Model the fold of this input.
Amino acid sequence: MTEYELEQSMEIEALEAILMDDFKEIHPSESGLNTSNKCFQINISPQEDDLDESTTTPVELALIFSHTERYPDEPPLLSTKSLRGIPSEDLRTLKEKLQQEAAENLGMAMVYTLVTSAKDWLSERFCQNDSTEDLEEEAAKDEIVVPHGEPVTVDTFLAWRERFEAELALERAKLMPESVLTATKEKRLTGRQWFESGRAKGTATVAEESDEEDEEEIDFDDDDFEDDEEDMLEHYLAEKSDSSAHSSRRMS
Done:
């Protein structure tokens, strides 16, 4: 047994142990491969985490392979077949993907790596839409605003208005003088009448009148200023003259 044959045999034993019922040997005539060597079929479904347990497996494919004489230093012969729900165009796409990955993994046993890649591709291709829809539904639920508090009805609104008007009346009563509150019923003013009568605005009115007085314009006459200046000049000259005369008398 050559080194290649030994490595191929060991890989087959490992695949049988890992994949169990999903792995089987088939006749070369059933494989669709152009070879007389041993051929094997692996049944592949999407990842179990991506499936709904309440439904059956939506898609399933068969990965068929056969070792070449110099495998793993050269890629295996590969073929894909739909067992359930996979279009032929998708099968061709997957086969090209697996062949490319086989070329990238030369020199090592690669069949199980290709199986894992095929599982991931099935999950992305056929289960992604369902996952996206679930995420959209969850996002829509998060956006729903749940109202809080007591719902407003006619009865609750009337009760609220009653309380509001009572509180408003109480606030108005606090602002009224005691004489208004102790007046007889016939002479007593309502809160609204008292406010409209202007009595509550007495302080404000006085303040406004005071402001108006402060704002009255003072008329200054330019002639007044001129007269004052002339009087001040004459007074200064007179004092200067008196002072000079007094000094002369003292010297004499």
Remarks:
- The mean pLDDT is 76.
- Residues 10 and 109 are 9 Å apart (CA to CA).
- The beta strands are 23-26, 39-44, 60-66, 77-84.
